[in-house]
Amino acid sequence: MNKKSIIAIAVAVICIIAGGIGYPMVKGYMIKKDPVNYLLYASTQNNSNAVDASMKGTFSMDDEALNQMTAYMSSDPEAMSTFVKGIVEELNFDGRVKFGADLDNNKIDFYENIGIQYGQSKLLSLELGYIDEQLFYSMPEVYSKAFAMTKSELFDLIKETQDIDLSQVKWESYLDLLKMEKDPDYQAILKDKAKYEEIIRLFLADLKANGKTDVTLENGTVLKCDLLETDISFKEILDLYVQLFKTVKEDQNVKTLVKKKALAALDIALETEDYKLMMLEETDVKDAIESINTDFDTKWNEMMDELIKTYEEIQSDATLAQDVDIKYHMAFAIDNKYNLRQYQMKANTNGILVDETVIYNAYGDDVKFDETLAAEETVSVKDMILDPDYMETVTEDVISKGLSAFLSSDAFVATVNDIKEKAAVLPAEESQQIIESLDYVLNNQEMIINMMLGQY
């Protein structure tokens, strides 16, 4: 092999390596050089069919808002401000949200829990979910069992009470209407999205890159992410909605898609005779189809005009605008695969401050729904509806055992004791009133429960 051949091969290898390494670097630079473009690109990368997010947040109040609120609440407004601020700053919340939609298999799951804490003590939490076609909700700190009903039980209940068999509805046909990735009218909307991007770019005009930040996922994984931040007012959010609705109103591609999907749904109901299960007549469906074919543009404009009017009236209401003077600081953390991993929002509503962080733990197939319930952990909602005596037994059980468990819980007692300690900063008479009221609740739990049972 001669020298020129060796040089040629070396150059070719260098070009291949440089291309393999260089293209991602150039692509990354082009995406990241504009913060708004970076955020918009990242929003297209997340698999939104399924997401697992956890959240936490705190509350506080600024001194001016506190002083205005407590000015007439105490003979010592400054002490009352200290007392109220001390309580508010102990309040915090956390939670978890999961959602997954597998339209190919006609499957939708979701799960949500939200908890209110005082300091490190969990006072109350609510769990709500629909997993493997079972709907359930519970408040673990109040009642040990979850209230549950499967989809088949719900359909059976409706059939028994209203003689409507929803199990015969061709649900899969309607769900198929939501599969729009290959729909040419949906693709036409995406191709003509520049006008929407322009509105969003104006809305995010102050978005700035602000270095790196670490994001810790629920499983302990720490990701190094790029940080984007901006400040936005409530008025600007209202204006965003107005501009978007005005644009949607005139978007022929959107109108075509909505009209087509509405007609398709009615055609399915007509062909399958599902309308009978919805307590409708055939003429009702045919009249709806005719109305859409003849008056769609008019109805569409009326609907959009009403939406636009609603937000414009809020904008022009000077009193409401003053009362809802909310300012937001928003921060977005994006990982090296262009996935949004953290969203932080700090809101100031007339001096009441909320600091919330949402962490996106997983997307797509990485989202797992493992919050399943054994039969002994649930109470049948169907049985409660069909059996009034059982309903009364469960309700009394929740009031007596549940309320007793809450009022005697370590978290509630610790919260009450902390509030009593904080009340010491108040004038003696006011402090004594608060302490006596809290002691009354702690020392008369049985009487309070019996009163509630009697009212029930």
Description:
- The chain crosses the membrane at residues 6-26.
- Keywords: Membrane, Transmembrane, Transmembrane helix.
- The protein folds into three domains: 1-33; 35-386, no CATH class; 387-456.
- It has helices spanning 3-32, 35-45, 63-70, 77-88, 151-162, 171-176, 184-191, 194-203, 234-250, 252-272, 282-316, 318-323, 381-386, 388-407, 410-422, 428-443, 445-455; strands spanning 50-61, 91-102, 107-118, 121-131, 134-138, 146-150, 208-216, 222-233, 326-334, 340-349, 352-363, 378-380.
- A hairpin with a 7-residue loop joins strand 5 (134-138) and strand 6.
- Residues 1-27 have low confidence and may be disordered.
- The protein starts with a helix and ends with a helix.
- It is globular.
- With 456 residues, the chain is α+β, with helices and mostly antiparallel strands.
- Helix content is 53%, strand content 25%.
